[in-house]
Amino acid sequence: MKFRRLLILLLVMSLWGGTMMFADSAAQKVRVIVNGEDLSDAGLLSDGKTYLAVRQLANSLQSLVVWDETSKKVTVYKPNVHMFLFQDNTIFGNVNKGNRYTFKVFAQIDNLKTDVAAVKVSIFDPSGSEKVIQSQNVSLNNKDNFWYRTDDIKYNFDSSGKYAVRFFMKVNATDEWNLVSEKIITAQ
């Protein structure tokens, strides 16, 4: 009786282990690197095809993702967003640590193939803390390009390091913010 239970247990464990090895060989994890950074969800390789997490890939490429539930369709839009930082009428990028600067952000957006509901510009300090410079609902009426200028902001660059000025868009008012452009300011 004990021999029979042991044999059944051994058979079940063998089948379970074999199934796990087959599943692992049928779909292998793939390491995905975009612009030098690993994507945390990575990808899967199955039958010679690589499958990636669309939202994570689009975020890495600074794109917008639209999911249509009824047609089960994902659309990725990559607008061209060029940002310029101005202090008065002078373009700037590097600053002195510990100083307070007044500047504005000017963005030129083109190749926009979808409507957007809102835009936001934020600055992130070297520790990752966000300060919203300005956000605004927009109505583009099917325009494929527009310009956006923030009001002047007074900001203290208290520590050394890289500060990221980021431009975000929302396709729908209820969506999360999608990063579509980034400019770096170095404080020394």
Automatic annotation (TrEMBL):
Signal peptide positions (record): 1-23
Domain Copper amine oxidase-like N-terminal: from-to ranges: 34-116
Presence of keyword Glycosyltransferase: no
Keywords of the record: Signal
Name of the protein this chain belongs to: Copper amine oxidase N-terminal domain-containing protein
Naturally occurring in which organism (per UniProt): Paenibacillus spongiae
